[in-house]
Amino acid sequence: MSPLFPALNRGPAERPALTFGGRSLTYARLAAASGAVAERIRTAGRVAVWATPVLETAVATVGALTAGAAAVPLNPKSGERELGHILADSAPDAVLTAPGAELPAALAGLPRIDVDVRATGPVLPDDADDEAPALIVYTSGTTGPPKGAVIPRRAIAATLDALADAWQWTGDDVLVHALPLFHVHGLVLGVLGPLRRGGSVRHLGRFSPEGVARELGAGATMLFGVPTMYHRVAEAFPADQELVKALAGARLLVSGSAALPVHDHERIASATGRRVIERYGMTETLMNTSVRADGEARPGTVGVPLPGVRLRLVEDDGTPIAAYDGETVGEIQVRGPNLFTGYLNRPDATAAAFTADGWFRTGDMAVRDPDGYVRIVGRKATDLIKSGGYKIGAGEIENALLEHPGVREAAVTGEPDADLGERIVAWIVPADPQAPPGLEELAGHVARRLAPHKRPRVVHHLDALPRNDMGKIMKRALGGHA
To answer: Where is each AMP-dependent synthetase/ligase domain found (predicted)?
Structure first.
């Protein structure tokens, strides 16, 4: 049992820990404010966190972890059905939120705890068992409602310490990012990562190339982003020389959550002289591989396995690929202290996710070079879409579309998009061919039920969906990445 945030007790008390916009907390103030949260919830088993990109979300999460409670980050843009499922499944004892935040009706029955960043509470020992649940993060599957991945404290510590080794990450680093705080990229890597090191994080609130330039130009050393962000940065060249100068001065530029197109890699490297490095992870495993800070930033690859992570590629029958040649494709399976413990209330899904000998089946297909570098080539399944840094399951969007009275049949695929990575494409058989529902109507329908980033960007109307003899939709006949 070891603390997740040793700097809260013995770190540089007056060093800035968190900055969100114009609001900041030093380590001393963060210890006091998170201690006040921990004192209020010390008997709770799970607490929901209304995860808007504000200072209070970070304080709430640190307070929950300090108290030994499991935090359930909630996406503020979740639709009523999705939010209702998450709350029913996780059964939190309370919801932590910023004062004045308007919460949806689905949260009305939960005790509300407003986080006061000026409050002072006792500094608790932060000594929960390493296997104790730290976070329950809901991840979209290809079918059905989201599943809650139970992430133990051990996994957070292991991933962050492995990244510190790979990226030479220290307490002197200042990280800037603008990622959402309801998934592991923005919350675990982007907030808990700097705090574990005793460093600082500056969150932009909302991404903009101007904000990145301002913070990197003012002393930030690292930038975390998703391909959509780096694409927009590259698009701003060469007109914005302040942005070029700021990126050129950064110690580390990291992209994740989806593959960064080689074209954007090269544009950024050409303009700044700095290469973006990529890493590979998922909710259930946190981080598995990364290009090292002292290694070769090879565009199109996600580097080598992190310290402590075992990775193998297997054939369709589960046989491990014996020799890596950079061409043979296999499914990635991993083992290590970075893994989750299972899906909440879903022993069937948990069992299906692991092999008999304990390897986690990622569902991602890759090739591996002889020197260990890994290149992701796609999903084993055809129903996961990566758009704007999000992993989105087609099944739940199809289900939402089928609830629209103007939709008889629906299928969802992804297709390449220069900005988003992939855009969501809906293939619709309308109930009335003379009056088919349009893109705007269907996009709004999905956004209200699920979340705005899950809305279709393109709609095709068909007379019928192609199906095989078993009645299954043949998505490869539709186009897109399926």
So the answer is: 10-344
Domain that holds residue 428: 384-477
- Give pairs for 463-470: CB < 8 Å, separation 24+: 463/429, 463/433, 464/409, 464/429, 465/409, 465/411, 465/427, 465/429
- Across 172-211, b (16+ Cβ under 10 Å) vs e yields ebbbbbbbbbbbbbbbbbbbbbbbbbbbbbbbbeebebeb
140 plus 212 within the same structural domain = yes
Are residues 416 and 359 both part of a single domain? no
- On whether both 127 and 193 belong to a single domain, the answer is yes
- The gap from C-alpha 80 to its chain's centroid, in whole angstroms, comes to 21
**Residue type, position 353, single letter:** A
Q: Report yes or no on 89 lying in a domain.
A: yes
Q: Are 42 and 167 in contact (CB under 8 A)?
A: no
Domain assignment present for residue 374? The answer is no
Nearest residue to 70 (alpha-carbon basis) of 450, 346, 348, 340 = 340
Q: Does the model's pTM come out above 0.70?
A: yes
Could you read off the pLDDT tens digit of each residue along the chain, which spans 482 residues? 688 999 887 767 889 999 999 899 999 999 999 999 999 998 999 999 999 999 999 999 999 999 999 999 999 999 899 999 999 999 999 999 999 999 999 999 999 999 999 999 887 777 789 999 999 999 865 567 899 999 999 999 999 999 999 999 999 999 999 999 999 999 999 999 999 999 999 999 999 999 999 999 999 999 999 988 998 899 898 889 999 999 999 999 999 987 787 778 888 999 999 999 999 999 999 999 999 999 998 888 999 999 999 999 999 889 999 889 887 888 999 999 999 999 999 999 999 999 999 999 999 888 899 999 998 876 666 666 888 888 676 777 887 898 899 998 888 899 999 999 999 999 999 999 999 999 999 999 999 988 899 999 999 999 998 875 435 577 778 864 43
Residue with tokens 């959402």: 180
**91: domain CATH number?**
3.40.50.12780
In a shared domain, residues 324 and 209: yes
